[in-house]
From TrEMBL:
Domain ORC1/DEAH AAA+ ATPase: 78-165
Pfam family, any one: TPR_10
Name of the protein this chain belongs to: Kinesin light chain
TM annotation in the entry: none
NCBIfam families membership: FxSxx_TPR
GO molecular function: ATP hydrolysis activity
Length: 811
């Protein structure tokens, strides 16, 4: 995976960020949309509840307490259900949701709050149902959904399984990056939870801290064990028969052994219903298993206890799973394989793929390269899928799996977290390590087989398997599958880059690099490739010193291992040049780019995309140096080549249009610049999405053109939006965000908002000195602006109007 470098912003007109620079090649980020809505809101109440109503739900006392806290009301209100896993929190919330659905005017939305991925996926479903614009993603999607829900007159939002409260900002503190670099505090998901003036929010969580943090201390209900009568009703309901008088004592004893915990009661009852086992016989079997548990050594007991799985659940699970193994080996295998994927939104295809890989073991042809892993997969037949569906139904009968029923999630399943933890726990035992190795490997291979290769039209599939791919990679050490995991994570990394999710990409790169370094050594081409990917991530985050350090090392390694003329070596030279460009070291940048272009012409040919990219990169450098005629000549040639080789709508072709527009801007040819810039912005919005950094850059370029034409009101409107977007997408201290601060300061000064302009320019300069260094061209431009403006407000306004036209000369 060669990731040669390509991007650095340039400043034209009033110093606004524009194309004409380079992006790390091969990386085009994601499809997003800034407009909160593109079609009219439908007034009918919407219901998005992923599970069917449990018509046999036990009417627990806790329902009355919940309805007292959250009565149907026009005012905003919130509450939380917290308690041990398996205590029935989700079932209570589900019944509450259906009861509120009786009101025809009340919209009901269900969101899995386990982590950012599931939260975002469910918000996408809500966005689609509410008629929000296609292409929304990231924080813009979350914000749009929050605002639309808040605008409703009557709504209920269930946030289920919010067990990791850190993602909602609870207990979070600011911390510095490694190696002394500051990092931006990541936006908390709590910012996207609707809050008033109407509506109801109900949380479920294992974490008691939700009380007093996300809801008021008196608005959290502890969901503990069931009352004796409630547990008895549940047992009878799931068994589908009343408890006979002669079994009454055994039933009460069994419920006591199970600590009146709903999940344990349900699984025990499901087993007895399925097998026809009398309560007394099941009780005896459970007590024997519990006795063996109590005889564990202290060391073994501590190992068991760390899984946070109640003993009663473990034992009921053990009894049921043995029965499943006897009835249907495929179901047994599926259950154990799913222990190593995400417990939420498990696609049927992933279940089927795991089943097939167990039934027909996959062959691996392993060479020294993790990229040389080949999965032989002939596809599944209808008969195979029917067998998988039958196995899944059996798992549902034993309360191990449940289907999702929302239209957007049809064909997907969920596994109770406690069931998954119990499965993981069972496989961790000394006598089951071979099974653990086997099933974790099956999960890894299934996810690897399903996670798509790098194609924009497959982004939806990538998102579907994203969380599963990341989790199976974390478990890969159990099956000695780190090489396969590194290859999978490389595809995940590419996808995250393409979507512009560079903060998420960094830990993926670090894990892949760690795996490859451990298995393959520092000098293996794949290890070096992972280093290059990490350098690309640091570059996109504006961490140029870290990017430079790694890029220098990567270049030296590739020269040593691959030779001077290998395409990856040449790509590393381009990456280093891109970093020098970003640092304002244009002479060093130019020297390398001239050499890279000559090498690529010789090695790859004139029409190879990498050769054309080198031409574009050199043109960008000439533009930065004020050599506009040379830049224009190359840019026109590059655009023609890319249109011919790549097509009109390829991101690189669009980038070439933007670079040519930037050259026209620098030459003062604003009408030609504007015509192209408008087209580029429309194309990028359509191809890449509103929140892709290139799209935001096009917005900034168009604002710069308006500024140069004296159209300050239009300029300001876009520039304000650009600054907000960059802060949200890239962070407060990213160089592009600082450039946007500079831009808006110049615009405000042109509109005679001098005190505000001076204040933001001062902040901008201080941050640029800290992030880029005072000698960086961007910092120097801000300093010159401050010196030119001075305290004289009239003078500063006049100078600001000239500044857009002379900023390029001042570089």
């Amino acid at each position: 995976m060669a990731q040669a470098g390509q991007h650095v912003d340039q400043c034209f007109g009033n110093g606004k960020a524009s194309d004409g620079g380079l992006l790390f090649q091969g990386h085009v980020s994601g499809s997003l949309h800034i407009h909160h809505e593109t079609r009219a809101k439908q007034h009918a109440a919407q219901r998005i509840i992923p599970f069917p109503r449990n018509e046999d739900v036990v009417d627990r006392e806790i329902f009355a307490a919940l309805h007292r806290l959250l009565p149907p009301s026009p005012d905003y209100q919130s509450a939380a259900l917290w308690g041990l896993g398996g205590s029935g929190k989700t079932q209570i919330a589900l019944e509450y949701a259906y009861r509120r659905s009786r009101d025809p005017a009340c919209s009901v939305f269900w969101v899995h709050a386990d982590n950012e991925t599931t939260f975002t996926q469910d918000y996408k479903v809500i966005a689609k149902r509410l008629g929000l614009a296609d292409g929304l993603d990231g924080p813009e999607l979350l914000t749009a959904v929050r605002e639309r829900v808040e605008a409703g007159q009557c709504w209920l939002l269930i946030l289920d399984n919010a067990d990791n409260l850190a993602v909602f900002g609870v207990g979070r503190t600011r911390s510095g990056r490694d190696q002394g670099h500051d990092t931006e505090e990541k936006q908390s998901l709590y910012d996207f939870v609707p809050r008033g003036p109407t509506g109801t929010v109900l949380w479920t969580s294992r974490d008691k801290r939700i009380s007093g943090s996300l809801v008021g201390g008196r608005r959290a209900i502890n969901v503990a064990s069931m009352a004796e009568g409630e547990a008895r009703i549940l047992l009878e309901t799931v068994m589908c028969k009343e408890i006979a008088e002669e079994e009454s004592d055994n039933a009460m004893a069994l419920l006591a052994e199970l600590d009146w915990l709903p999940l344990a009661v349900s699984q025990a009852a499901a087993y007895m219903r399925r097998t026809g086992t009398p309560i007394g016989e099941y009780l005896s079997r459970l007590r024997r298993r519990m006795k063996r548990w109590q005889l564990l050594s202290e060391t073994e007991f501590d190992r068991h206890r760390r899984w946070d799985v109640p003993n009663n659940v473990m034992q009921t699970w053990d009894i049921s799973i043995e029965r499943i193994r006897q009835e249907n080996q495929m179901a047994y295998n599926i259950l154990h394989s799913l222990a190593f994927v995400d417990s939420q939104n498990i696609p049927f295809e992933l279940v089927a793929k795991a089943a097939k890989m167990i039934a027909r073991p996959t062959s691996y042809e392993k060479t020294a390269s993790a990229k040389s892993v080949h999965i032989r997969d002939q596809g599944g037949s209808q008969d195979d899928n029917e067998k998988v569906q039958a196995a899944a139904v059996l798992l549902q009968h034993f309360s191990f799996l449940r289907p999702r029923t929302s239209g957007e999630r049809y064909g997907a399943y969920e596994m109770h977290k406690l069931v998954q933890e119990a499965t993981q726990h069972s496989l961790s035992q000394e006598d089951r390590r071979t099974d653990q190795w086997h099933f974790s490997g099956v999960a890894l291979r299934a996810a690897t087989s399903l996670f798509p290769e790098r194609r924009r039209e497959l982004w939806g599939e990538c998102e579907r398997y994203l969380r599963h791919a990341q989790l199976v990679a974390e478990w890969s050490g159990l099956c000695e599958g780190e090489a396969e995991a590194a290859a999978l994570l490389t595809r995940v990394s590419d996808y995250l880059y393409d979507r512009g999710r560079w903060r998420e990409k960094e830990p993926v790169d670090l894990r892949a690099y760690g795996y490859r370094r451990k298995l393959l050594g520092d000098k293996h081409p794949d290890t070096i490739g992972s280093m290059a990917s990490l350098a690309a991530t640091y570059h996109t985050q504006g961490r140029y010193e870290e990017a430079e350090k790694i890029s220098v090392e990567v270049l030296a390694l590739r020269r040593d291992v691959l030779g001077e003329r290998h395409p990856d070596t040449i790509g590393s030279m381009a990456e280093l040049a891109a970093t020098y460009h970003a640092q304002g070291r244009y002479e060093e940048d130019e020297k390398i780019k001239v050499e890279v272009l000559a090498l690529r012409r010789d090695v790859l040919g004139e029409r190879h995309p990498d050769t054309i990219r080198s031409m574009a990169e050199l043109a960008a450098t000439y533009n930065t140096q004020g050599r506009y005629e040379e830049a224009e000549k190359i840019s026109v040639e590059v655009l023609a080549l890319r249109r011919d080789v790549l097509g009109e709508r390829h991101p690189d072709t669009i980038r070439s249009m933007a670079e040519l527009a930037a050259t026209y801007h620098a030459q003062g040819r604003y009408e030609e610049d504007e015509k192209i810039s408008v087209e580029v912005l429309a194309l990028r919005r359509d191809v890449l999405g509103e929140r892709h950094p290139d799209t935001i850059r096009s917005m900034a370029s168009l604002a710069a053109t308006y500024h140069a034409q004296g159209r300050y009101e239009e300029d300001e409107k876009i520039s304000v939006e650009v600054l907000a977007l960059r802060r949200d997408v890239l962070g407060d201290k990213h160089p592009d965000t600082l450039q946007a601060m500079h831009d808006i300061a110049v615009t405000w000064n042109s509109r005679q908002r001098c005190p505000e302009a001076l204040a933001i320019m001062q902040d901008c300069f201080q941050l640029q000195c800290k992030v880029l260094g005072q000698a960086h061209p961007s910092a120097q431009r801000s300093l010159r602006a401050l010196n030119l403006w001075g305290p004289d407000k009239k003078k500063s306004t006049r100078v600001s109007r000239m500044f857009g036209r002379i900023a390029t000369i001042l570089q």
